[in-house]
Amino acid sequence: MLKSKTFLKKTRAGGVLKIVREHYLRDDIGCGASGCAECCRTQEGPALEPRPRDPESSLCPQPHYLLPDTNVLLHQIDILEDPIIRNVIVLQTVLQEVRNLSAPVYKRIRDVTSDLSKHFYTFTNEHHRDTYVEQEQGENANDRNDRAIRVAAKWYNEHMKKITADDNHPQVIFITNDIKNKEKAIEEGIPAYTCEEYIKSLTANPELVDRLACLSDEGNEIESQKVIFPEHLPLSKLQQGIKSGVYLQGTFRASRENYLEATVWVHGDDEENREIILQGLRNLNRAVHEDIVAVELLPKSQWVAPSSVVLQDEGQNGDDVEDEEEKENTLKTAINEKMLRPSGRVVGIIKRNWRPFCGMLSKSDIKESRRHLFTPADKRIPRIRIETRQASTLEGQRIIVAIDGWPKNSRYPNGHFVKNLGAVGDKETETEVLLLEHDVPHQPFSRAVLSFLPKMPWSITEEDMKNREDLRHLCICSVDPPKCTDIDDALHCRELENGNLEVGVHIADVSHFIRPGNALDQESAKRGTTVYLCEKRIDMVPELLSSNLCSLRSNVDRLAFSCIWEMNHNAEILKTRFTKSAINSKASLTYAEAQMRIDSATMNDDITTSLRGLNKLAKILKRRRIDAGALILSSPEVRFHVDSETHDPIDLQTKELRETNSMVEEFMLLANVSVAKKIHEEFCEHALLRKHPAPPPSNYEVLVKAAKAKNLDFKTDSAKALADSLDRVESPDFPYLNTLFRILATRCMMQAVYFCSGMDNDFHHYGLASPIYTHFTSPIRRYADIIVHRLLAVAIGADSTYPDLTNKHKLADLCKNLNFRHKMAQYAQRASVAFHTQLFFKNKGIVNEEAYVLFVRKNAIVVLIPKYGLEGTVFFEEKDKPKPRLAYNEEMPSLKVEDTEFHVFDKVKVKVTLDSSNLQHQKIRMSLIEPQIPGVSGPTDSTTLNTDEPEKKRSKLEN
Amino acid sequence: MAGLELLSDQGYRVDGRRAGELRKIQARMGVFAQADGSAYIEQGNTKALAVVYGPHEMRGSRSRALPDRALVNCQYSMATFSTGERKRRPHGDRKACEMGLQLRQTFEAAILTQLYPRSQIDIYVQVLQADGGNYAACVNAATLAVLDAGIPMRDFVCACSAGFVDGTALADLSHVEEAAGGPQVALALLPASGQLALLEMDARLHEDHLQQVLEAASQAARDVHALLDRVVRQHVREAALLLGD
Ligand SMILES: [Zn+2]
């Protein structure tokens, strides 16, 4: 095996360093066709079919394999993923190039390859004796790789001829969009086509053509040859410019309201020019939201002020720019010297951050046209021009489109159709859209990920019991909301012989099943959290774990990570210990069932006694926590009753809170705090913790002002003072006032975040009034908890460590992703609630409801309808209507509309309707009914609530 | 930039080997006439030279002499040109001392030192080019040199390294693979008895995986043995031919 190899040395000289690497060439690498007599090595894993029958191509009637080059793989991955395309040879050269150029595409191609039905085969050509090529003098790396690909393609064709007796041997077709490369290949006798030629030749599957990415050098006959945009500078020039300070690097953020305006957040600590404003198409210069761009500051004389105009791009296909210039001029009105901001223009793109976008097709007015504009759901994304033959079928559907490029002579970026999600307004479709738009990874778990799941039937083995305590005899039970299938915590409480109490919190031992670094671990880390939508759950870990092996269901043996305290009857902790364990829960209860047991006079079994003990301790713990200054905040949380057949929401219900809810919560908090202390003690540099920063005093202004208006004195200098102030709010004739204050206080809070202890000094958790905190109790649905489990396991010697666990930079990166995923999950959840609210009101028709004013704005009031927990804005100014007299008092704050004044917490009556005038952006509209204001309120009036804005509904503050 | 992929999905390593395969080994015995024994070995791009003097009377302080066996003295050094970056390496730096000590432990376990009480055996090893697995190359070179010197040994001492990537044990790590920072085991084996003369591990490795890595390293060491054995037989045959003339 060793001697059969010849070897060559690749020498790479760079600087003083001379790197010599060995490169072995082999003769035992198979061609991948199953049953090949020449390559006797039996194939395991993905293999090519010996005689692929389909797809039928008019260009190559013979059975054939495809061999794409790097650019085809990079840009046409949408096509390659299509089930029609099978039997593809991916060369190692190509794969390595893709890996260096685009991590997402690399991952996608690996996923496709692992799908055996796709018959993708990776040929290790760089180590094959006959297909290795050496870089020649004067040849650059790209040319060398192109040559290597052609050599491999040629070898394949000859090999296929050799192994097939008859004439009908499979062909290997080289797919490249590089015309020169294609010509060279044909000269060398390799059948070669461009991706477009090949896809168009698939007679049986014409719909595939739409998924082709259209690249700038192909068929741009319709685009005007007039140059609209300034040229982008090459990357090397940009880097030079950034270094010398001529250009600034930043993230491009398009405006939601105005398509001709954007800001660039400059990277770095320079406080002064943090934000640069860009106005006008030419200055935006083809940058798309989230791109990393280089900007040049304009001279002060050309600075502009942020416009307050709402501008939607509504033009048709045309590339006429005069119209735009006119619009740009409208932005420049009302210029006040003081309002001018540093302005600039984009000179080049450092990194594109294009993703597939959801949206809808705006069919071209020209009947026969194949080119249409696509309007993304996200208003910050420009419209995209695509080519499709199925425009009439795609009308009224939510579709996904990817951008391929944006040439300088095109008003819109060019893209291609990727996928049809379904009809607009359809529940499945809308759910898919909101998941995609919030970047929630929700594809089914890949084969590679699933391969790391334990084999069924599963049971606890002796091996598993190593380093593990057997607690199966304990009377442990779980308490959760009804129909909960991912139970990650269970509890027990018993009296010890010395009269003290032993309390245990048992958490699903997810880190036992998810081992560091494997595909399953990577996928969970990427997802970061389970996302709960109104009627759907997007799991972080595969269902086998989340709903079965890791779910601490009753009467089955499960692995757990236990935190066990010895406490006295005054809930003071005497001893804390942690251990991995095996448990057998005796009952899975709902909050209501647990409450019933505690309250029942006749029940005295072990479970009930245990619950009563827990409940008693929890009350003391809670009291103590509140005395220390923990905040009890409120949010109008609403659940939908969903019709079991139509899945339409039929009623709303505010979440009921029982004693048992807070009982479970109390012990989870205690466990989290205990674990946080332990892991920080053990790993002071790389513990994963969670902090909740105190809000800056200015955040509380609105709260203090509102209190003043109600003759209350609010202290906000500490959490404790705030908690006390909130407790003092009481009004016999206005019982809801206290809740309103708590809702308002919630809005003043900062976001709690994960962080790595070695990268931060401030650990304080403001809301819980705890000096240190982490997440340990929900490893099934939060990845942070898995890391915390691993840290704790190492700390107690129950598991081994691995390099990334003790790398604080890796940990900090992980925290960044987790914080992002949590934020996105929250937004997705709100969007889901908003959509279901719309469905609800669609079925319900027009309703009039009581509401309270939460905020007063310059031209509107924000109101909350307690019955639905629904918040909306009542605008007093509208297009095409006479404007009422408005007087805004910032000090109070109050807004006077004609003769009626509105204050925070005023009671009003509003009309709620669904506005479907824009199919893509349906809205709940709220308009004033009471108090009556002539010309403003009344049934003829309509005002809007914009449900797109994520800030509008805050779900409960996560601890 | 994406980091280096140490093991591809198809099971190939960066240089084209499969997980359990060794680099190409070439060796020659008796490269220096003046020394009692000498050998030169190439394991891939790692090249090492070993020279043996002895057994001879104690040099220097006689008080170090052992009454019941021979003293094995090992010195390890790296040539200035052995790595990509030229570096002067003073004799007796910490790393060299440690390596010398390890070699000494290894060979004290293998050489039948009790046959030569109160005498001394010197083993000098120099790495001419370093590309991973320095310790293993030194041990293998020294084994050949000791055999060349005709000093009786219990058995060959064959060494090889092994690492662990993505659940797979890799034998005979190259420099690139070592530099990636994963766990690494260096093992010296007496193949006939299966005894270990030395086992050293860098970085942490879960005990569940230890067996797998050890198994890979041992198998690799046995493969090395087969090769060294062939080199020795070849050398003896050549020597016999010369004598026969
Ligand atoms: Zn073959």
Automatic annotation (TrEMBL), chain A:
Report the family membership. Answer: Belongs to the RNR ribonuclease family.
Annotated region Disordered: the residues are: 930-959
Please list the cofactors this protein needs: Mn(2+); Mg(2+)
The organism's lineage is: Eukaryota, Metazoa, Chordata, Craniata, Vertebrata
Which InterPro entries does the UniProt record give? Answer: Dis3_CSD2 (IPR041505), NA-bd_OB-fold (IPR012340), PIN-like_dom_sf (IPR029060), PIN_dom (IPR002716), RNase_II/R (IPR001900), RNase_II/R_CS (IPR022966), RNR_Ribonuclease (IPR050180), Rrp44_CSD1 (IPR033771)
Which GO MF term does the entry hold, naming one?
Answer: RNA binding
Q: Which SUPFAM superfamilies match?
A: Nucleic acid-binding proteins, PIN domain-like
Q: Which GO terms describe its biological process?
A: CUT catabolic process; nuclear mRNA surveillance of mRNA 3'-end processing; rRNA catabolic process; rRNA processing
Main localization category: cytoplasm
Question: What protein name applies here?
Answer: Exosome complex exonuclease RRP44
Per the UniProt record, the source organism is: Phascolarctos cinereus (Koala)
Automatic annotation (TrEMBL), chain B:
Q: Where is the Exoribonuclease phosphorolytic domain?
A: 21-152, 155-219
* SUPFAM superfamilies assigned: Ribonuclease PH domain 2-like, Ribosomal protein S5 domain 2-like
Q: What's in the keyword line of the UniProt record?
A: Acetylation, Cytoplasm, Exosome, Nucleus, RNA-binding, rRNA processing
| Single Gene Ontology MF annotation | mRNA 3'-UTR AU-rich region binding
A Pfam family annotated for this chain is: RNase_PH_C
One of the protein's GO biological processes: defense response to virus
In which compartments does the protein localize?
Answer: Cytoplasm; Nucleus, Nucleolus; Nucleus, Nucleoplasm
Q: State the GO CC annotations.
A: cytoplasmic exosome (RNase complex); cytosol; euchromatin; nuclear exosome (RNase complex); nucleolus; nucleoplasm
Q: Which family does it belong to?
A: Belongs to the RNase PH family.
Q: How does it assemble?
A: Component of the RNA exosome core complex (Exo-9), composed of EXOSC1, EXOSC2, EXOSC3, EXOSC4, EXOSC5, EXOSC6, EXOSC7, EXOSC8 and EXOSC9; within the complex interacts with EXOSC2, EXOSC7 and EXOSC9. The catalytically inactive RNA exosome core complex (Exo-9) associates with the catalytic subunit EXOSC10/RRP6. Exo-9 may associate with DIS3 to form the nucleolar exosome complex, or DIS3L to form the cytoplasmic exosome complex.
PANTHER family in the cross-refs? EXOSOME COMPLEX COMPONENT, EXOSOME COMPLEX COMPONENT RRP41
Report what the protein is called.
Answer: Exosome complex component RRP41
